[in-house]
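In this section we walk through a basic example: taking a raw amino acid sequence and producing a predicted 3D structure, encoded as discrete structure tokens. The instruction is simple. Fold the sequence below.
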Amino acid sequence: MAGGADGSDASFDLTPMIDVILLLIIFFMLSSQFATSELRPVDLPHQEGAAAASESATAKLVIDVDRAGNYSILGEEISLDALATRIAAAQGSTGTRHSGIVVRADRAAGAASLNRLAERLAKAKIANWSLAVAPEGS
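The resulting token sequence is shown next.
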């Protein structure tokens, strides 16, 4: 009997594959929200900034500066010396200079805090970092 003469057709059930795809979509949606929820709430200055970076150039390190001039990474408060050590350690492990550093400074933070951070980044030979702003009208 040649293929199919007995009335049985080979079929492929897509239901398990669709279930796996939906689970992956849910996982990535939730994990991306966890990444943004670890950032401290910061009142960013309202300015017209550059266009948002492409997905390939996303921030590798986000430094927050709060109203009091304290620094934090992923919600963990950190001193300026410890911050410099962490940046140096990250550079040593990857062998590259961080070009994906984003500084999120509160509008009410003193300029001196931002200047001290900029000096530390310059000492670490990091000249390419970004200052986050909120789009005007938001």
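Looking at the output, two observations stand out. The first strand starts at residue 61 and ends at 65. The mean pLDDT is 75. In the next section we compare this with other chains.
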